[in-house]
């Protein structure tokens, strides 16, 4: 007869479900899933969807086979109650892309950035040929070519309502575009003195007009712009070297990383620097917030098909309310976490709302870190490095999980599928690779580019991946 253990189910937001329950220690994941569904439906007095898969954790260790296997990894006292944390996975499933459906020519120099709109229905790219291009995803052909920049377009950013796109160039200019017409909106924003490294819009639930944009620059400053008046309303300057990345968080704080080895936290309303996060021994290259996906997609939830098009006549207020609901659902209990990646080969996990000390130093990469991302469900962190590998870490604790090997040159950019089950990477070896995050193995190798792949993005609706690089073509990948 198998041994038994007293367990208490607890949601990932900390609520206890039912009373402690006596379970056989060899109960498997399927048994736990059936049990949790029965408990939830009896507690809520309603039928729940049977097909919702769940993940289970004991002390942050995921139960992948059965309960006993995880208990062996932890020093569990069998006389005490064991807490099992359950988390529903995404109801909808994103299918892996498996083939290149289009190779679209248009850019005459390298494609430096590609980005899908918040609802996944539109796509923009920025290139070394000084143009921004919008692409028609139905016919998979070029839609608008936007000229206005006089130097390489280094970054593009969609407003979270999908009605505007910002782009910035090596000459330090920022231009706002109308994706419908491909025409410039307002004046060129030109107060930076050196090139712009990153752009980020104020979250939709804080700014229903999508009026405010923040930019970081090699000139050591961060600037906040009013895109309706085409003016700079605040310049934040405490960094002493190039600012590499900037994020506008959902609690209305701005986070910036710099080659001066620090990360700074700012209050945008009065420009006060409220925290200085240090610890890195070299340039800080990249930042990610665990709210990035929710903030990027705003009001658009891939599970909710009632909000199809960005240009539907839906009131700004309603979009803001939807965005707020989505944000609150995730962050009413959870705090906004930040992860930073550096030239010192390390990463730090921060809880900047609470503390200026890092919560975890994440080591293991053998070269500088290019890109870090939180999975949409916030459970995982992925990092891409010049050491040709991608590493996966626990999104709550920063604990190292595994290394994904397969690329034979530097990995430049990574992007999660919206259900957090897959990851796509683009590399200097000219390939894209799709990784299965359940098995932690390579799922699909996608050769096709003729040279280095600088940019990849998985559309928020899960339908396709876009990639661009040195061979000047934009490729679309579907299942």
From TrEMBL:
The entry's keywords: Nucleus, Repeat, WD repeat
Domain NLE residues, every copy: 5-71
SMART domains: WD40
WD repeat residue numbers: 104-145, 146-187, 211-235, 236-266, 362-403, 404-445, 446-479
PROSITE patterns: WD_REPEATS_1 (PS00678), WD_REPEATS_2 (PS50082), WD_REPEATS_REGION (PS50294)
TM region positions: none
Source superkingdom: Eukaryota
Protein family according to the UniProt entry: Belongs to the NLE1/RSA4 family.
Protein name, UniProt field: NLE domain-containing protein
Organism listed in the record: Brachionus calyciflorus
């Amino acid at each position: 007869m198998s041994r038994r253990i007293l367990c208490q189910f607890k949601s990932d937001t900390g609520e206890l479900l039912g009373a402690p329950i006596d379970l056989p220690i060899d109960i498997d994941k399927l048994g736990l899933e059936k049990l949790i569904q029965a408990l939830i439906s009896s507690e809520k007095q309603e039928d729940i969807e049977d097909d919702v898969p769940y993940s289970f954790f004991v002390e942050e260790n995921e139960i992948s086979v059965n309960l006993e296997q995880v208990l062996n990894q932890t020093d569990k006292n069998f006389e005490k109650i064991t807490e099992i944390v359950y988390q529903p996975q995404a109801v909808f499933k994103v299918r892996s892309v498996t083939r290149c459906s289009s190779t679209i020519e248009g850019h005459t120099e390298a494609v430096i950035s590609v980005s899908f709109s918040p609802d996944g229905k539109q796509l923009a790219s920025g290139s070394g040929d000084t143009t921004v291009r919008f692409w028609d995803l139905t016919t998979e052909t070029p839609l608008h070519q936007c000229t206005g920049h006089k130097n390489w377009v280094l970054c593009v950013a969609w407003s979270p309502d999908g009605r505007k796109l910002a782009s910035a160039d090596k000459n330090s200019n920022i231009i706002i575009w109308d994706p419908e017409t491909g025409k410039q909106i307002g004046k060129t924003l030109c107060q930076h003195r050196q090139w712009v490294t990153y752009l980020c819009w104020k979250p939709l639930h804080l700014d229903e007009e999508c009026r405010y944009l923040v930019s970081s620059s090699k000139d050591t400053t961060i600037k906040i712009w009013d895109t309706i008046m085409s003016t700079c309303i605040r310049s934040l300057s405490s960094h002493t070297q190039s600012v590499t990345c900037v994020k506008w968080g959902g609690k209305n704080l701005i986070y910036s990383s710099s080659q001066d080895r620090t990360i700074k936290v700012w209050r945008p309303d009065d420009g006060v620097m409220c925290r200085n996060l240090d610890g890195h021994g070299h340039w800080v290259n990249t930042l990610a917030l665990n709210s990035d996906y929710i903030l990027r997609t705003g009001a658009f939830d891939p599970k909710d098909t009632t909000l199809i098009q960005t240009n539907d006549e839906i009131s700004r207020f309603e979009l803001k309310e939807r965005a707020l609901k989505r944000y609150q659902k995730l962050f009413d209990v959870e705090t906004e976490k930040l992860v930073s990646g550096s030239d010192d080969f390390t990463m730090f996990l921060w809880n900047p709302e609470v503390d200026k000390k890092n919560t975890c130093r994440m080591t293991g990469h053998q070269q500088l870190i290019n890109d870090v991302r939180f999975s949409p469900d916030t459970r995982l962190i992925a990092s891409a490095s010049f050491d040709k590998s991608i590493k996966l870490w626990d999104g709550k604790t920063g604990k190292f999980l595994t290394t994904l090997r397969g690329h034979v040159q530097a990995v430049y950019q990574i992007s999660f599928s919206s259900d957090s089950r897959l990851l796509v990477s683009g590399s200097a070896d000219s390939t894209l690779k799709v990784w299965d995050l359940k098995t932690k193995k390579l799922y699909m190798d996608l050769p096709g580019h003729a040279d280095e792949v600088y940019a990849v993005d998985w559309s928020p609706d899960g339908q396709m991946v876009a990639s661009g690089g040195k061979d000047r073509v934009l490729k679309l990948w579907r299942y």
